[in-house]
Design brief:
Ribosomal Protein S5, domain 2; binds (3R)-3-hydroxy-3-methyl-5-(phosphonooxy)pentanoic acid; Alpha-Beta Plaits; four-stranded antiparallel beta sheet; 318 residues; 41% helix; alpha+beta
């Protein structure tokens, strides 16, 4: 028995890092997806294959967690424990989402793995079950993630997310805009960046408090702008958000250069997306201006993606 599920990557439009301390953040799903095929096999263990990483490994339970494929195995394992069905499996991952980019590739793979594994074993899970199980795999990758990635990848569309309150779906029409994403080419680790911000915040709590408060207010205003279709306001708020991210120490010269280049080329707003330190920036572009912005960014970035917001979350495929 074999089952295929897919789940979207995401872009955080506002609120990353601040969301870790329970401020609201807004994320959208994008039209880049991870696909996972889970197949019941003879033998033992869980064989994980990744087309993009060019890796394959059989897991029996005592392998080091540092293996790049371990989170996929872990997602399969927690799913089997949850549904109470254990079986040897092959889990194959095919993903359009660039890894370690801030576009939520690990969460999308985790979400699709949970859905595919459960279905291959005869159980169709509800979305909230899929999201919760995927969060467990995300903990392996990121330490203590806020949960925004697995949530947006499961439900799709646009969400406002707050750690202690869960998520709210934003009613929005994103057809007037496209997102341009440009790679800084610098490696980054979400866990390390979150820890770094936490250290600086602990050192200067009275300075950081108002910054976090401002970021929370900003996310609320951004949510209103999205629902009103006011993308000019959203762009301005994204620029302010970038300033706050710089203030808490997750920007650098390369990211700043990309952000300013996108703005100068006509983006409505541009900022780091995700953990920063490296990874990608996102530029919000009115349809028709995205190619100009992408062209300007290609002069300084080796990987530029033009993507659309996607309403679709996790889904089963034939
Ligand atoms: O994994 P990334 O780069 O999308 O970053 C996640 C966003 C953070 O707010 C930095 C961490 C989190 O757990 O929300």
């Amino acid at each position: 028995m074999s089952a295929v599920a897919s789940a979207p990557g995401k872009v955080i439009l506002v609120g990353e890092h601040f969301v870790v301390e329970n401020e609201p953040a807004i994320a959208v799903a994008i039209n880049l997806r991870a696909r996972v095929r889970a197949t019941k096999v003879e033998g033992e263990g869980v064989e994980v294959r990744s087309r993009e990483l060019g890796l394959a490994q059989v897991f029996r339970g005592d392998e080091p967690r540092s293996s790049p494929l371990y989170p996929v195995y872990f997602a399969a394992k927690v799913t089997m424990e949850y549904i109470g069905v254990e079986s040897p499996l092959r889990v194959e991952v095919f993903s359009d989402i660039p890894p370690a980019s801030g576009m939520g590739s690990s969460a999308a793979v985790a979400v699709a793995t949970v859905a595919a594994v459960a279905k291959a074993l005869g159980v169709k899970l509800a979305e909230d079950e899929i999201s919760r199980l995927a969060y467990r795999a995300e903990e392996i990758v990121h330490g203590k993630p806020s949960g925004i990635d697995n949530t947006i990848s499961t439900y799709g569309g646009a969400i406002a997310y707050r750690k202690t309150e869960g998520f709210l779906r934003l009613e929005a029409d994103f057809s007037p805009i496209r997102l341009v994403l440009a790679d800084s080419g610098l490696p980054r680790s979400t866990g390390e960046m979150v820890a770094r911000v936490r250290r600086l915040k602990a050192k200067y709590p009275r300075v950081f408090e108002p910054l976090y408060h401002a970021a929370g207010r900003l996310a609320i205003e951004a949510g209103k702008a999205i629902e009103a279709g006011n993308f000019r306001a959203l762009g301005e708020l994204m620029n302010v958000n970038h300033g706050l991210l710089s203030a808490i120490g997750v920007s650098n010269e390369v990211l700043e250069r990309l952000v300013y280049r996108a703005r100068e080329a006509g983006a409505l707003g541009a900022k780091i997306t995700g953990a920063g330190g490296g990874g990608f920036i996102v530029a919000l572009c009115e349809k028709g201006s995205e190619e100009r912005v992408a062209k300007a960014l290609r002069e300084v970035s080796s990987r530029v993606f033009v993507v659309d917001v996607s309403g679709e979350g996790v889904r089963y495929e034939e």
